[in-house]
Amino acid sequence: MMRKELQKVFTEKMNNNQRLAVVAGFFRMAAEGYRGITKADARNVRRFVDDENVNIKDDNLYFCLELVALRFGFIKWLNYSDDLDKYINTLADSLADIDYKNALGSDLEDVIYEIKIARKSNDLKEKIDLVSDFQENLLNLEIMERLTDCYYNNYYLITLNNEAI
What we know:
This protein is mainly α. Helix content is 68%, strand content 0%.
C-alpha cells in the first residue's frame, strides 16, 4: 500500500478514538519491546496517524501499520441501530470459551473482562463505553498477537466481533 493511501486510512476513515487505540497499542508494544518496536517508532506512528509528514523507513513498522489498516477494513463496527444487549450477550458467550491462560495480565485478558462487565451492567453509558473500548482494541496489534500466544488465529476476536453483530 502506498504511503498516502495508508495514511488516509488513519486520517480519513478512522475516528479519533480508533486512532488513539492504534497509537496506544504501539506505545504499549514499545514499552514491552514487542516486535522490536521502540518509543521513537511509537512517536513516529503517532505523527503518521496525526497526518504529519513523517517518513516511515523501518519496513517492520510500515508492515505493522499496514496490518492495522487491513484489520480496520475487516472489522464490522457496531451501529446505533444494532441491538447492544444482543451483541454483548453473543460476544460474551463466544469469549467465555477462550482459554487465555498464556495471556494472563495482558490487554487481551482486559478486553475479555470488559465484555463480561458489560454483560452484567445495567448502565447503558457504561455498556457503550465498554463495547467501544473492546472494538477499538481490535486495532491493537499486541492484543491480536497475544491471541497467537493462546493458540488462536490473531483475527479470532475480529471474527467473534463480526459474528456478534
